[in-house]
Amino acid sequence: MAWNSPYRPWIAAILSGILLALCYPNWDRSQLVWIWQAPVLLVLWFYERPGTPLFRWRLGPRLPVKLRETRWGRILSLPVRGMDWILDGGESQSRGEWGFKVGYLAGFAFFVVNLNWLRFVAWPGWILLAAYLAIYFGFWGAFAATVGRIDRQKLEVPIPQPSASQPSWATAITGPDVWQPSFHTIWVAAMNAACWVALEWVRGWMFTGFGWNGLGVALHNSPHLIQIADVVGVTGLAFLPVYVTCATVGTVVRLSLEFGKGALRPRLDFVSAMCLIVLVLMYGIQARYRHTVDSPVELNALLVQGNVPMSIRNDQGRSPAILPLYEGLTTPSATSGMDLVIWPETPLPYASFDERTVNFVDEILGAGDFHLLAGIEEVDFLQDGTYEVFNSMFLMNGSFDEHQAYQKIHRVPFGEFIPFRESFPLFRWVLGRLIPGDYQAGRSTQRLTLADPRVELIPTICFEDTIGSLTRQFVRDEPSGPQLIVNLTNDGWFEKSEANTQHLANAKFRCVELKRPMVRCANTGITCAIDEFGALMDPKKNGQPLLLRDKEGSPFVAGALPVTLRLDSSPASTIYARHGDWFVKVLTLAVLFELAKTWLARRISIPQPKTRRWGPAASAEP
């Protein structure tokens, strides 16, 4: 296949997307995070687009001319015109549009593989979400192909001419342009990495946000590299692999241009990438091995996993069998000596106002002296006769009525509510039967507090443990004592797919960012404890992770996991906890500044014709 073949960019894009998908569970080939961008970078930087489109045919049939000129005709023709734009790969489009398509295809290939577990809920949602999230890859592709593109002329240095007094190799390392290629590659690598980080950050909050599996999460099994997240966050961590890949690709291209010509130059770009890795490693090593726990507070907890299939959970005829299950897993012998018993997200089939819920919880609490933390569907009746429903977490001691409550803040769109239900009737018409009513969003970031031992609980429900900007709101103030992150979740919607291990990989970074341990209690999936460095805790130090699983090693099992936690009585506040995504925002401003500078430079360098704005017809003036 010729280098300028019209098929090469699309093959490179798909290859990069698949390589990136392999970096995450269940494959966990995290070493690919350093090379996955290389195929798509080579075409975005150096590929010269052919003069003919990728496809010579167009979609049809076309709408009649009269209908096409009407309002509805323009709306109906949008999909056809959009597909024509996508299929057109010739010179009729700018390099930025072409780069967007290449990046978009890489992103779509990645998300289709990475989010395939959504097919268990709704396969159209799987494809549509992948199509939306790929847009961010597309914007990065457009940036890398234009503003963040390597200027080949700055890499091609003149061949030195040896003299009698100075050999060619000496001329090569002392010439006037000796540092220019390295500085140019460093600038390009930094800009592309900054753009990637900025787009990941926007993806985390745009349209309620879905920051699932950012690039930094691919490093979740590299305990030393990820500790820098307590300074820059997991989104800022993505800067490292993108910068290293861009600098390495630039170095390899420079070598190919200089080799055999006596024009070898210093490799400051590659050296900077290696130094950045070493600095991040050194920070992680000292963070882990210089950490000490002053006057630790011990907390004994029991994590209960019912492993209830969603087919039973949603069946009104069979759901009452859930109560005896949790009663059997929370026996007096199991709870003896426990300070805290934890049930997963909404384990009981009845709401908070139902007498069956109240009586059952009171019976469990009467069997011992412990706190019970459980997910509850909370119904709040208002004075006007209406009511609001919250996905909540109740911390109870003594009786059901004596509880502290946390109401989930970040709801799952199209799962817990329909966005724009009233203003966009199409969503209500399509999904109204599946989601007849919306959960309301909570507003308080008040921590829950155990009485004895006095421990502050940082509550997260479901996917909230994947959102660093939300979790840090619970620790912005100085802690008054030991703190523990608690996540109650129900990953049973996705059966035994990689959604469970991916969820765990994302959750680890909340511990690293805030330097707080976490316990996760799932209805089914992965129930475990994570230390403040993102590792599954093991108090016996026998090399085995502390998680609930059966004899075959499967985490999809009903059972109870006892955990003894040693919590720092005076935990320090991290830079990320105090200042959030400061690093990401700085990089975003740098990218916006570079885009504005490039736009202004082009406006100034390309003279625009003066156009008359008055008279019967506008005309260009010389």
Structural descriptors:
622 residues, alpha/beta, Nitrilase/N-carbamoyl-D-aminoacid amidohydrolase, 6-stranded mixed β-sheet, 5-stranded mixed β-sheet, 22 helices, globular, disordered C terminus
Overview of the structural elements:
It is a single chain. With 622 residues, the protein is an alpha/beta fold. The protein folds into four domains: 115 residues, no CATH class; 177 residues, no CATH class; 247 residues, Nitrilase/N-carbamoyl-D-aminoacid amidohydrolase (4-Layer Sandwich), CATH 3.60.110.10; 35 residues, no CATH class. It contains 22 helices and 13 strands. The protein has a six-stranded mixed β-sheet. It has a five-stranded mixed β-sheet with strand order 6-7-8-9-10, with helices on one face. Helix 6 packs antiparallel against helix 7. The longest helix is centred in the first third of the chain and has 24 residues.
Please report the distance between the alpha carbons of the first and last residues.
47 Å
The assigned CATH architecture of the largest domain is: 4-Layer Sandwich
From the helix content, strand content and strand pairing, which structural class follows? alpha/beta
Question: How are strands sequenced across the largest beta sheet?
Answer: 5-4-3-2-1-11
Given as residue ranges, the uncertain stretches (5+ residues, pLDDT < 50) are 54-61, 610-622
Specify the helix fraction band: 40-55%
* Proportion in β-strands: 5-15%
The helix tally amounts to: 22
Gyration radius from CA atoms, angstroms? 29 Å
* CATH class term of the largest domain: Alpha Beta
Number of β-strand runs: 13
> What count of domains describes the coordinates?
4
Q: Looking at the structure, what is the overall shape?
A: globular
Oligomer: single chain
Q: What fold name stands as the CATH topology of the largest domain?
A: Nitrilase/N-carbamoyl-D-aminoacid amidohydrolase
CATH homologous superfamily assignment of the largest domain: Carbon-nitrogen hydrolase
Largest sheet descriptor: 6 strands, mixed
- Mean pLDDT level: 85
